[in-house]
Each structure stands twice: as C-alpha cells, then as structure tokens.
Amino acid sequence: MLFWSVFGASIASALLPLINIEAILAVSVSQAPEHVWGLLIAATVGQMVGKILWYWGGMHVDRAPWVHRQLQKPKAKASLDRWHERAEGRPWFTAGLLFFSAAVGFPPYAITAVLAGILRVPFGIFFMTGLLGRGLRFWAVVFGTSSLLHLF
C-alpha cells in the first residue's frame, strides 16, 4: 500500500511542484526501511509519469492558443530560439542538461520537460535522462537522510 501511495504522490508532485516528494519519500522510507528500493522505484517512475505529461504538453503547445500566443511574443520567442540553437545538433548537451535538471532541480525539471517537448527532444533521451537523474536525486535523498539520522 505504501508503494502505491508514494507512486501516486510522486505523480502528483511532478504535476504540482508544491507537493514535496522528497519529504514524502524520506518519511516513507523511515517508516518502512525494508522497502527502500521499492519506494525509490515508485518515486522515480511516478515522477517520470508526471513529467511525461509536461513533455507531451510541450510537444502539443500549439494546440493551446493562449500559450501559443505567449510564445510568439518577442522576448519569449527570442528565448525559445536561443534554446533551440543550443540544443540543435548537440545531443550530448541536451542530454546533459536534462540529466542535470532531473538530478539537481536546476533549472526546474518541470520547465525543462516542457522545453524538451517544445524542442522535440527524442522521447528516449528525455525518458532515460529523467529516469536516471530522478533516481539519483531520490537515492541521494534517501541515503543522505538515513546517514544523517544515524548521527543522532
């Protein structure tokens, strides 16, 4: 039951960044340390399910007239063009940025997920870098937290 709760909370937190999955995961692992790996997997996969929705939204941004109009404004268009220039023909840069964002949270992963969709980053690259980055982030939260708890 805890597995599914963390999985659901992880999806919700991917869609609504105000929900802190790191805190939920740390508390869940402290309550059921024998299930640490299952909870890590639940959080990681759940986050990616939610981020795939952001990615898909970026791919289909032209279907939302208000967002499309916002992206046509000169400042937004110039920013998007700069990102397109940075990513075009540089798959390692793009993959590295996505991995870094997923692992560290800067730039915010929800924003890079949308940007990846807008820039048409191949889904496999988006998914694998996100899965690895989020997995590493949650591993650090769980094992960093458990290390700190053993100090007290």
Number of helices: 8
Beta-strand segment tally: 0
Q: Which residue ranges are poorly predicted, with pLDDT under 50 across at least 5 consecutive positions?
A: none
Cα(first) to Cα(last) distance is 29 Å
- Mean pLDDT equals 85
What is the overall shape? elongated
What percent of residues are in strands? under 5%
Q: What helical percentage do the residues reach?
A: over 70%
Element string (H = helix, E = strand): HHHHHHHH
* Count of folded domains: 1
Structural class: mainly alpha
The biggest beta sheet is recorded as: none
User: Rounded to an integer, what's the Rg over CA atoms?
Assistant: 17 Å
Pfam families: VTT_dom
InterPro entries: VTT_dom
Domain VTT: 22-143
Keywords: Membrane, Transmembrane, Transmembrane helix
Short descriptors:
152 residues; VTT domain-containing protein; membrane; transmembrane; single chain; VTT_dom; 0% strand; elongated; mainly alpha
Can you tell me about this structure?
This is VTT domain-containing protein. Keywords: Membrane, Transmembrane, Transmembrane helix. InterPro entries: VTT_dom. It comes from Nocardioides potassii. Residues 22-143 form the VTT domain. It is a single chain. The chain has one domain. It is built from eight helices and no strands. The mean pLDDT is 85. The relative contact order is 0.15. Helix 1 (2-15) runs parallel beside helix 3. It has helices at residues 2-15, 21-31, 36-59, 65-71, 74-87, 91-104, 109-118, 123-151. The protein is elongated and about 50 Å long. It has 152 residues and is an all-alpha fold.
